[in-house]
Specification:
This protein is α/β, with parallel strands linked by helices and 263 residues long. The chain has one domain: 2-enoyl-CoA Hydratase, Chain A, domain 1 (Alpha-Beta Complex), CATH 3.90.226. The protein has ten helices and nine strands. The protein is globular.
């Protein structure tokens, strides 16, 4: 499989492992239009890639991604929002269809859509001092891009409701403690350990590993089919609200001024 057409995502092959990196470090790897479009393409390409036996998803510049770029989101036309939600659905559903195991290496921040991408991965290595959470509510948005489907499976209904309805951000260490991710490590060990594990899977018995993932993911597919379209539809209505416009502008301004994206 040739990934030379990808420009917004950095894609590198390391043996049988395909490494996909967010590479917008000057913007904390915020997901903008070009990145979102390529995310909507890449997982279906991987599913057909006979050279790749495992995937490593990560971010460059010491952070995974802060999720959707607030400036980009706040400037969208109605037609662009329609495209956004078509792409959003494709990203998540395509991730569920990737037969190869996907490992995440998370440093810095993983929030919003980035957090959803992390928790849809099969095994997650995170820095103990990293920050992860789904603060859609800070944008006055429903947590509709997949979080409502997968968080309850990982950490239970009550804890998922608490974190998704408040938008609270938690540390990597806490995320591992509650079962949201697999392993919390010192920051300087995350990349090496994640790649080591991805190589272990890539060099294992492919049919057995893929079949095991497929069987377990039946649970995740069932829940996603049950929840996802409703969550997306509810989130879509929020894009028409003044609260969303005001929140997105405020967050974009705070980031432009060098402040925190999430308070």
């Amino acid at each position: 499989m040739d990934y030379s057409s990808y420009r917004a995502l950095d894609i590198e092959r390391k043996g049988k492992v395909l490494v996909i990196s967010f590479n917008r470090a000057g913007k904390a790897n915020a997901i903008d239009g070009p990145i979102h479009l390529e995310l909507a393409r890449v997982f279906s390409d991987i599913a057909m890639d006979r050279e790749t036996e495992a995937v490593l998803l990560t971010g460059k510049g010491g952070t995974f991604s802060v999720g959707g770029d607030a400036e980009w989101l706040s400037a969208m036309t109605s037609e662009q929002v329609d495209v956004l939600f078509v792409e959003a659905r494709k990203i998540v559903m395509d991730m569920l269809e990737v037969p190869q195991p996907i490992v995440a290496a998370v440093q810095g921040m993983a929030t919003g859509l980035a957090a959803t991408l992390v928790v849809f991965c099969d095994v997650v290595f995170i820095a103990e001092d990293a920050q992860i959470g789904d603060p859609h509510v800070a944008y006055a948005l429903v947590a509709g891009d997949g979080g409502a489907a997968v968080w309850p499976l990982l950490i239970g209904l009550s804890r998922a409701k608490e974190l998704l309805m408040t938008g609270d951000i938690i540390s990597g260490k806490e995320a591992a403690r509650i079962g949201l991710v697999n392993h919390a490590l010192p920051d300087d060990q995350v990349q090496a350990r994640a790649l080591e594990f991805a190589n272990r899977l890539a060099n294992g018995h492919s049919a057995a590993i893929r079949g095991t993932k497929t069987a377990i993911n039946k649970i995740l597919r069932f829940t996603t089919n049950l929840v996802f379209d409703t969550a997306l539809a509810l989130e879509r209505t929020c894009f028409q609200s003044k609260e969303f416009e005001e929140a997105a502008r405020a967050i974009a301004a705070r980031r432009a001024a060098g402040g925190k994206q999430w308070e």
